[in-house]
Amino acid sequence: MVTMSFLSARHDHLVLGQTGPLPFFPRVKIPQKARAAHTYVVGITGQGKSKLLEHTLFQDITQGRGCGLLDPHSDLASDTLRYLASWHDKSYMDKPYLHDPKNLERIIYFDPSRTDYILPFNVLDTQFGTYETAQNIVEAFRRTWPQSLAEAPQFSNIALAALITLIENKQTLVDMHRLLTDDDFREELLAHVSNAEVVSFFHDRYDRWGREAPLMRESTLNKVAAFTFNPQLRLILGSKENALDFRRIMDEGKVLIVDLGRCDPETRRLLGSLIVTGLELAALSRKDIARVEDRRPFHFYLDEFQDFFSLIAHTCFLGFILRSTFYVLHSGDFQL
Ligand SMILES: Nc1ncnc2c1ncn2[C@@H]1O[C@H](COP(=O)(O)OP(=O)(O)O)[C@@H](O)[C@H]1O
Ligand SMILES: [Mg+2]
Prior knowledge:
There is one protein chain. By secondary structure, this protein is α/β, with parallel strands linked by helices. The chain has 2 domains: 32-119 and 243-334, Rossmann fold; 130-237, no CATH class. Helices cover 43% and strands 12% of the residues. The chain contains 14 helices and 9 strands. It has helices at residues 49-62, 75-86, 101-106, 130-144, 146-150, 155-168, 176-181, 183-190, 196-205, 213-228, 231-237, 246-251, 265-285, 309-313, and strands at 13-18, 27-31, 66-71, 107-110, 255-259, 298-302, 320-323, 328-330, 333-335. Helix 4 packs across helix 6 (155-168), helix 4 (130-144) packs antiparallel against helix 13 (265-285) and helix 6 packs across helix 9 (196-205). Bound molecules: adenosine-5'-diphosphate and magnesium ion (MG). Adenosine-5'-diphosphate is lined by residues 2-4, 43, 45-51.
């Protein structure tokens, strides 16, 4: 039997649990250094995987480490916040954890289904390369609609050219539909695009498809319409401001809690993919910090990662630590 222990632990170790219910039972822990690689939690439903992630995430938050959570079901995010709200370690704190404005400020909570406050997420506002950003967003679209986009002719070309045009003009993702359907608007934006290939793609190909145009464009436009016509997504993705600066979140050791549990499945996949690709880009950009030791670790938790599995497969490098801990629980046995 493994019990969860929320007792304060030495910060150089992450406590996974305790081998029995009394304080003298040995704890199972892993050194922080060992976390510099992927970790997976594996087990059948109901074995306590999410609870374990909650427990380790809780340690990361309260011990001041930068971390993030992408929760597709809400339970983990809301349990963590609820527990944090009431948590108070009397041995070194004179008030509950969240009563300290410093701690509250570290936490960025993003629930896209909430209408009382909107967190602007301008995915095109990025200090990374225009082309890299556009390509990552195209990849996020592919992950959101893998089947229909695999069959969509010209999808990658149209989306890539449109995204580069929008980024160079400091527009937002929701302007993509207008860019592809309104010729005057497109010409206005193309006048400010430095990438000659993009301008030539629109003038020499896109505009000349003639009778074939609906076939070439429709499947891409359908997808773009999905976030343009969704009022909530429009508000989140259509703002010029950007509250989710992943690079800053990592470098400043902030806590990012994303709760996608109340979104419709398409929104969940789209925002989940955009967030994971955004983190990926931010992590890559950290190579400008020469020494690995100077890169502040960031632990990222993905619950139910099979929904995002293809995203993980090639993520994790440099100082970025993608975390979804490996953990096997047999009846009565704890095994690493
Ligand atoms: N170490 C534990 N000791 C006692 N109960 C636990 C423990 N871990 C999880 N549970 C309980 O078991 C149930 C399933 O846990 P959960 O973390 O949701 O499983 P999973 O994510 O593997 O499906 C929950 O009700 C949870 O409170
Ligand atoms: Mg679970």
